[in-house]
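Lecture 7 notes: from sequence to structure.
We start with the chain below.
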Amino acid sequence: MRSLIIISIFAGLFSGSVESKLKLEDLILESDQLPKSCELIHVEADEDLPCNAKSNPYISSEEEFLNCFTSSLVSVDSLRKKVVAGLFSVYTDGAEIGVFALETESENSAKLIWNQLQDDRVNIEQSDYLLSGSIVIWLWRDTGKNDNYLKFKELIEAKGY
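Predicted structure tokens for the same chain:
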């Protein structure tokens, strides 16, 4: 009996029951999760979005998208090459709230990019930079009315920050 319990414990440890890491998809907030009066901005199919994003939200590992997307966030060329996918999503709450995220090839790459963002953009009050494993998150807001920004930030942090 004792052997069976020990085997069961080890089987659970190796069967993948370990807590999973944050994924870009996890950072997309559904309408039922959003604070009151906050919503994902609807985009028409033919509407032009930054960096040729094809929808809102948009996750891609396409080279053209990543080159454009990372050039505005990451100032060090060698670090840009460490990004394997990006998330673009914009919400409204009287003014825009955005979640831009970069998935990197390793936690170390993410940490280097996060440090660079901290150094380069330290004086931007409307931004928060979060780090979770191999993902760097840039949470931002326009300077207009954003009553729910702090609640929105809490929701993103609860996803695995």
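Points to note: Residues 21-158 form one domain. The chain is about 30% helix and 25% strand.
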